[in-house]
Amino acid sequence: MNIGQAASASGVSAKMIRHYEETGLIPKAGRTDAGYRVYGEREVHLLRFIRQARQLGFSMAQVSDLIGLWLDQSRSSRKVKQLAQTHIGELEQRIRELQGMKTTLERLVQDCHGDNRPDCPILDALGAAAPCCTDAQART
């Protein structure tokens, strides 16, 4: 199948398929005599694997590690579990950061009159010399 068909079958855009090839996450596709990429069921299955891992928030490096483990029939499930547990910790940290951002923004919204006056505590806080939010929130 061509790249468009592989994209439809896998749920991964053609642009991302090309990106995954360029970065080495997936092997370069075979080519027809005319130079068009050719994909089979194996490649589509791999693309679905990547899509599902990305939907769970795994980084590209983690997805690469997961692919390596997935393809290694002699792997230990301990390694897979450890990688997933590490990711859960990262997600929990991200949730804490997002919750902090939400709390800060709720406070700023509470302080804003939201009327026809030009003064706005939200804009004042964003433009203040002192940060309105924590370092973790400012990174995002």
Strand content: under 5%
Distance between the termini: 39 Å
**Could you tell me the mean pLDDT?**
92
Secondary-structure element series: HHEEHHHHH
- Helix percentage range: 55-70%
- Runs with pLDDT <50, length 5+? 136-140
Strand order of the largest sheet: 1-2
Number of strands: 2
The chain-level structural class is: mainly alpha
Question: Please, could you describe this protein's structure?
Answer:
The protein is mostly helical. It has helices at residues 3-10, 14-23, 41-55, 60-71, 77-111, 121-127, 135-138, and strands at residues 30-31, 37-38. A two-stranded antiparallel sheet has the order 1-2. A hairpin with a 5-residue loop joins strand 1 (30-31) and strand 2 (37-38). Helix 1 (3-10) packs across helix 3 and helix 3 packs across helix 4 (60-71). The longest helix is centred in the last third of the chain and has 35 residues, at 77-111. The radius of gyration is 22 Å and the shape is elongated.
Question: What does this entry show, briefly?
Answer:
By secondary structure, the protein is mainly α. The protein contains seven helices and two strands, in the order H-H-E-E-H-H-H-H-H.
Question: Characteristics of this structure?
Answer:
mainly alpha, two-stranded antiparallel sheet, 2 strands
What's the topology here?
Layout: H1 3-10, H2 14-23, E1 30-31, E2 37-38, H3 41-55, H4 60-71, H5 77-111, H6 121-127, H7 135-138
Antiparallel strand pairs: 1-2
